[in-house]
């Protein structure tokens, strides 16, 4: 009888632990299991994209230098263990997110291309299309600035929202995104509401209320410092890049 009670108790304990794990999994950040594991390790996320890397040398490297200071300070934050920081070499502003191995469904996959096409072949086809593409009046320079607004209540760390520094840049970037959507056959649901940004890290663990408040306060402080140092920064022409994961975006060519 005692043995049966012990077995029943063990079974209930196992079921209880399984329920706790399932509940915890439901509350994991969106990119855990997609781009990173629950310990913060990078996962495969093959694909292609159109971005502007931040200049790391020369007169236009001031923003990169300011973000290096953020990178240096990040490990000292109480909420840092809930975030995987991206390597500074990967810092970029996305112009147009193209195709990736995880989101194989239309309209996030190029129209007319089979959903089971190898991602390398998809990248080759998009590359050939984009080599024929001409920026024309939508070419760089793109003058941008950091958005000082507080992140939305649903936003997670660590993203630096951006704004066009002038109406002409905003017009060219929005028109360019429309044209790239046409040539790639991809149009994300948020295409018209897309917010330009630089991703500095990804949340990989739930935040307490105190941690959520802390990262928002820290980000506001960092943004104030960045805006003072770099009121406006300039980016060059978009690069067609391929990636294996979120740690590196390999430039194939500049759009021209």
TrEMBL record:
Keywords: Signal. PROSITE patterns: TAT (PS51318). The keyword Signal applies. Residues 35-153 form the DUF1868 domain. InterPro entries: 2H-PEstase_DUF1868, Cyclic_Pdiesterase, TAT_signal. Pfam families: 2H-phosphodiest. Residues 1-24 form the signal peptide. This is DUF1868 domain-containing protein.
